[in-house]
Amino acid sequence: MTSRKSDPAAQAAGPLAAVDLGSNSFRLEIGQLQDGHYRRIDYLKETVRLGAGLDDRSRLTERAMRQGLACLARFAERLRGFAPHRVRVVATQTLREAVNREEFLERAEAVLGQPIEVISGREEGRLIYTGVTALLPHAPGRCLVIDIGGRSTEMILDDGPAPLVVESFRTGSVSLSLRYFGDGRLTPAAFRAAQIAAGAELEEGLPTFAAGRWQRALGSSGTVAAVAQVLAATGLTDGTITPAALRWCIEQCLQARRVDALHLPGLKEERRVLIGGGLSVLYTVLMQFGIESLHPVRGALRHGVLVELHQRLLAAQASRAVHDVRDASVRQLQRRFHVDLAQAERVQQVARALYERVEPDAPPETRRELQWAAALHEVGMSVSHHQYHRHGAYLVGHADAPGFSQSQQRRLATLLLGQRGGLGKLRDTLHDERAAWQVLCLRLAVLLCHGRTMPPRFDALRVQRQGREVRLHWPPGWADAHPRTLYLLQEEQAAWQRSGRLRLVLPRAN
């Protein structure tokens, strides 16, 4: 009988935390998933308006960064005591756009004590869909899910357990409010201009999300929730959003003439400054895609993050196979770029064996990143055998890969770039010792499998780590029997010596 302590489901069932660094608000959700049910434990939200802190050069201002950091310091207090693997932090459109995002991320990670993943627009949409479906009772018919954030709008067409199509459009309540209602005036010309701008961004989605391709339209989070509260408070609807109800809201704005004179029941103070842009994009979405009624739902990005964090814990702790969408993404990329699966498996096996020797206490995510990089190390050959490591790094770094954050894709791309050739191009990466060991193990695995077979007498090779030095040992006669492998190992030894980072030591010649 399996004890509860060793049961992966039991271990993954404890409290988990998700932090969503949105363009308007930062949110911290603490919850628990057990037996297919979600239970909220705590929820914190602060209006930070990070997106409003982007200047005309797409740089975050110091003031905006300080506001965000102050919020994260408060979140860090609540997260004290959480194991790092039970927390996941994601950032969205503002940090996708900010050219100085690395500066903010470095400071934010130091304050929060957690790594921050910048996710792509499509990945954001996929996680929103995961959160919505996790909290929504199953109902027949295809759904259209819409999430209007501060600087982006995500639209998802469902296909049962997985989204069929996910798109992200660069328009939202913050960006439109700043551009067209920044002076505080609510005028017909401003609403018309904002709706035209939103429509231009959304127009390319017309064939994909046209009426007739879905039976129900659902709205998640932010703008949808704020407007639904107004409609319910005024009694216009039960919270369902319709074109007629939105026209009434816009008319109230026009009568007020200014944001500071607008008083709508149910509208929170922090949302008032964004109401012009929010109503503009929401009305445009309904009219452009033929939506007669949009139903607000509870699920949001942060819930999707928690669901996937739970699944990742199960996958990391279980001896049996547990679904991780990133594994499916890797397989899809292998098929797409015609990877030699047998060679990928060989390199994975060798890299895993080496890494277990040099980094036995590495976190599960770090181990899995090395395995994914080994599985994808030859994707660049679909472009050209020459410099295939560089082609592969570009493809993996820029491909749509559900489940992966932009940050993690960059790490995989760096590993692919570093699998061969000089180490000078990885100078910054190698300052991170854990990343350096990943690079070394992948390079050695690729080298040892260069004949597209398992390394000769691999079970007889021994690996010993001492500090930043790793020693290889082989039985008598091995080097004489495999001179080409020995030559490649000597070249590798010289490359690491030039790098000044790790040290690879080979047995002395007899």
Task: Tell me what you see in this structure.
With 510 residues, the chain is an alpha/beta fold. The chain is 48% helix and 15% strand. The chain contains 21 helices and 13 strands. It has helices at 8-12, 62-79, 93-97, 101-112, 121-135, 173-180, 188-202, 206-209, 222-234, 243-256, 269-272, 275-288, 301-317, 325-336, 341-358, 364-375, 388-398, 406-417, 433-448, 478-481, 483-499; strands at residues 16-21, 25-34, 37-47, 87-91, 116-118, 143-148, 153-159, 162-169, 216-220, 295-297, 462-466, 469-473, 503-505. The chain has a five-stranded mixed beta sheet with strand order 3-2-1-4-5, with helices on both faces. The protein has a five-stranded mixed beta sheet with strand order 8-7-6-9-10, sandwiched between helices. Strand 11 (462-466) and strand 12 (469-473) form a beta hairpin.
What characteristics describe this protein?
single chain; 510 residues; alpha/beta; five-stranded mixed sheet; disordered N terminus; GppA/Ppx_hydrolase; PyroPPase_GppA_Ppx
